Amino acid sequence: MGRGRELLRYTGTRLALAPLMLWLIATLVFLLLRVAPGDPVDAVLGSRAPEAAKAALRARLGLDQSIGQQYLDFLGGLLHGDLGQALINQEPVSGIIGKALPASLELSITALLVAAVAGLTVGFTAIARSEGRLDLAGRFYGIGTYALPPFWVAMLAQLLFAVTLGWLPVGGRFPPGMIPPAGSGFLIADSLLSGDWAALQGALRHLILPACTLGLLLSGVFTNALRLNLNRSLRSDYVEAARSRGLSETQVIVRHALPNALLPVLTIAGITVASLIGGALLIEVTFSWPGIALRLQESINQRDYPVVQGIVVVVAALVVLVSVAVDLLVALLDPRVRY
Amino acid sequence: MLSIGRLRRSLLPVCAALAVCFSQSACQPQRTSDRLTVASAGRITSLDPAQASTFGALQLLSALGDTLYKRSSTGVLTASLAADLPRISDGGLTVTIPLREDVLFHDGTRFDAQAMAFSLRRFLEIGTLSYVVGDRISAIETPEPFLLRLRLSRPSSSLENLLTATNLTPVSPTAYRDHGDRFLNDRFVGTGPYRLTSFRSVQQRLEPFKRYWGAPPSNAGLDLIYLSNSTALFGAMRSGEVDVLLSDALDEDQRLALNRMADKGMLREGQGPALVIGYITLLSNAPPLQNAVLRRALALSLDRDLISMRVSHGLRPPLLSLVPRGLPGGDAEPWPRHDAAQARNLFIEAGYCNGKVFNLPFTYRSNVPADRLMALTWQAQIQRDLSDCLALTLDGVESTTVYRQLGEGAFQAVMLDWRGSYPDPEAYLAPLLSCRESRGSVCDRGEAAISGSFWTAPGLEDTLLRSDRSRGDARLQDLDIVERMAAEGAAYIPVWLVTPRAWSSTALATPEFDGNGQVILARLQEVD
Q: What pTM does this model have?
């Protein structure tokens, strides 16, 4: 079978399995929410509302139906692309996700860029003398950033750069005195497209601290991956062969060792993007970043079933898409990869 | 291998570029408008007075709308949209309210009795908190364009304070024509000093309403922002990023730090009437706490002064009543103060001490830091004073779960708090003590069961109902009887009062509160 057809078959299989995976995830979330203690009606009315008021609201929200019927309604809606309405204020779940997802993506992508730049830069310490100061510093950085608790680092960064030094805002996504530019919800892109430089500056200032904190904490993964693979590449036969041909050390590293060492890093980047889409919770909470993880946390606290279900399904779908895209990219870049 | 020197040389330009970047942003941006920035916790998911229940939403609505009456921070009831105090006649079953004739809604339509009746009926029909009004109002009439008449099913002395509730803020019938039977979450058209010009759940913009009937706001407008955690709120105030901070979700140490900054003149601090009570509920319909002697012993074992100091450095004053101070009946202190010797005697009477320790599981809401500190402090205090009689086993449970399982009798002892929907003793006593079906001192159905105590006493319900019918001294006497019965039953142990605070920068005047515990945003102003 030709490589192109092999890739096509692989992609087709992964995409065909995606609905099954999403169904499993949606079912699991649906059941877990119903098993968890707590009642959305209490969240709306308060625990002291009379039973009659609770029963009326339960009926209005459809929570008086059997679990089976609720499940069928949920799946039916999902098949029609309808994620339902929030129990708390009857806002369409798709609208809630539409507002929160761009914030999370903007933060994740920027953090990933920071992580890649910082992580790969430090990862180059692998080329330094083994056990030397630079090598040890790189190793320490890789382990340290990986091991530090995100909420602790985030709060320290907040106290240092926002409260003490006053360089950057404490939290939020946009200056309070300004109206965000209308558009896609990606404030940086919207500001650029509308030519609103004040808005761009405001959005960037709010983005720097959470994105750098998250990015630097993630960069250890990149550092460790690059160090490991670069070390391995530098000891491989083809690098020795390159050296024996009289190439300079820089040429050996840049042309031969680095491309091979970077391929596994690409896979790691893909996994990191996927996990960041819904997983930057601690950073979003600490910096009051109105993203999807913060919204998910609030909705879980309120037992807002449709919002939690909708967010989980959408994030799961994005994770599937990103992981397939990364697999394909790796396969395209590395002819040795077979599926 | 690359040398360190070469690497250092290649990194130098990067470091220089970073330094330039930081130097460019090394100061906070200047204010982009004359509006003030007010920060609080809690995303606002609905601006509909029929739906709003969170502190943030009610605070915002209090600036965008008016109620018929307002209660000052000293407890005086004054007419707002009403032209005068209510006239009560016909044995207390008819309340007539004259309305102001110079009030406009933000959409330019006129406020009148029809508009008020529309808003009240809408709240009673779809309001999530309509049970607060209950069955008290049997009919709403508009005999004249600016005269509202409420027919009551029973006399109710708490009705006047109920009419100060933000949930009863009138809305424009024109703007809400299509939302008579459903909520309008992202818009609000009321009569208040501000109109809403931009709404997002995390940020709202308010601008003065130029045709406001009353005194215009003292500022050029407000930007209200939401920050999701205490550290961010604290940091935003300290760094000067926000002008005013509301205290509803601040951790105790940060509240104290701001309090001390205010003492040093670095900030201004305003205090409102304390309307949130912290209390312990004891499960009184099952062993071992069905024994009233044991419950009384627990009430005596609690050292409120110590707990208040350790948890909040005294910012949460000790409480010996279910009704907050400042409300009618709130000055009495029917619950006993800490008395370890007397508590020991009662534990002995109940069969404990002298080698038999009463192990009490004590639940607190794990997501409320003050409750956790309170539980730890009480546990240590018991260990110090009564270790041979009582031991507390702490159990942190998320608040949503606590509230869900409270009415199922899941917790023997649990720390909770309560804020009445309106500033009246009725809003504190009825939700804890009211009972519809009882057997002796056990309440099977009613608020006392929902509250997790399942406690009542013969004659309590009648006295409670009478206290809402009577007025003046007779009411105070009834309230006193109710509280003394509750203290004797000891199914609840009041712990502390939570005082609302707000901080402003020194460039602004001290924030002022109204009698409902909300900051009067229209009075925030810059000072020389």
A: 0.83
Please report where in the chains the tokens 């009834």 appear, as a residue.
Answer: B478
**Contact yes or no for B65/B190 (Cβ under 8 A):** yes
- Give the CA angle between residues B423, B78, B430 to the nearest 5°: 20
Per the structure block, which two tokens stand in for B70? 């307002």
Spatial distance between the Cα atoms of A104 and A102, rounded to a whole number of angstroms: 5
Angle at B307 between CA B305 and CA B313, to 5 degrees: 85
In this predicted complex, what is the ipTM? 0.76
pLDDT tens-digit readout, B222-280: 999 998 888 889 999 988 889 999 977 788 889 999 999 999 999 999 999 999 999 99
Task: Decide if B4 and A294 are in contact by the 8 Å CB cutoff.
Answer: no
Report which of A328, A332, A218, A209 is spatially closest to residue A275, judged by C-alpha positions.
A218
What residues 229-288 of chain A have any CB closer than 8 A to a CB of chain B?
249-250, 253, 284-288
- Dihedral, CA of residue A210, residue A212, residue A216 and residue A218, to nearest 10: 50
Between positions 168 and 227 of A, the ones with CB within 8 A of B are: 168-179, 198, 201-202, 205, 208
Tokens of A193: 């497209």
How many residues would you count in chain B?
Answer: 528
Which residues from B are below 8 Å from A88, CB to CB?
Answer: 45-46
Task: For B211-248, give one letter per residue: b (16+ CB within 10 A) or e.
Answer: ebbbeebbbebbbbbbbbbbbbbbbbbbbebbbbbbbb
For residues B105 and A219, what is the distance between their CA atoms, to the nearest angstrom?
55
Q: Is B6 exposed, middle or buried (0-12, 13-18, 19+ CB in 10 A)?
A: exposed
